[in-house]
Amino acid sequence: MINLGNLITEKRNQATMNLDELSISEALQLMNQEDQKVAKIVEQKLSTIEPVVKATIEAFNQGGRLIYLGAGTSGRLGVLDAAECVPTFGVSSDMVIGLIAGGEQAMTVAVEGAEDSQELGRQDLIDLQLSNKDMVIGIAASGRTPYVIGALTYAQEVGASTASLSCNGNAAISKHAKYPIEIEVGPEFLTGSTRLKSGTAQKLVLNMISTLSMIGIGKVYKNLMVDVKATNEKLVERSKRIIMEATECTYEAATQAFEASGKNVKLSIVMILTGCSKEEAQEKLVQGKGFIKNTL
Prior knowledge:
Shape: globular
CATH architecture of the largest domain: 3-Layer(aba) Sandwich
Number of strands: 7
Radius of gyration: 22 Å
Helix content: 40-55%
Largest sheet: 5 strands, parallel
Number of helices: 10
Strand content: 5-15%
């Protein structure tokens, strides 16, 4: 029998004991008040997030991958963050990977028993041919999910970097990760519904890890997404605006460079700022290890 009594994420929130008796306006205000606490709690844990970002950058620099894994909401948030790295930072779909217990179908339909299997977590990483160059981050609001524990245990055996993200103190998964992050957001607005404050906290932390790690490998110039993939009309226009912002050029000049570079924002910016050809810009970026600032 699983004892959830000691998990703060499962306790009743004293501020919402009469939740079903509140007006919509009162409930909205109360829910917003609870949500506002989350960012402040994350702020208190920044020192535990920093080494995870550094380890992720190191993994990328040695050709490794960032692999998120979890069950239920935690797994879905990892999959979401991984998927959004592709268009935002122009990375391949196998550089940042999200695994969810039960596979893709678990994104929309709960797969019974999947999260309770340590072996399944282990096998999912074996199937990915996990190496010691990779970074594995196990996510579980409860901090006790067997799927995550099994995966982290295997990752440590392989020699990969490991981190955990939970919303309870002294979490079981923390003992299986080199870099544990525990964001204790307290009892949920709706008892046990960890898709709420816990999910918000996890999303905030994953945003930090992926975004700052991408900055750390040259995917950002100043505060611009210079490796964005222009996969639709909106992103084509965004790409041109980024070129204009970075170089203070006209829309026409940005369009010309964008086309000449093969629709590559980063190359376009280097071409304009240094007055060089596409080929020369490519060489400058190689020498600058992908950082625009190093080419200037």
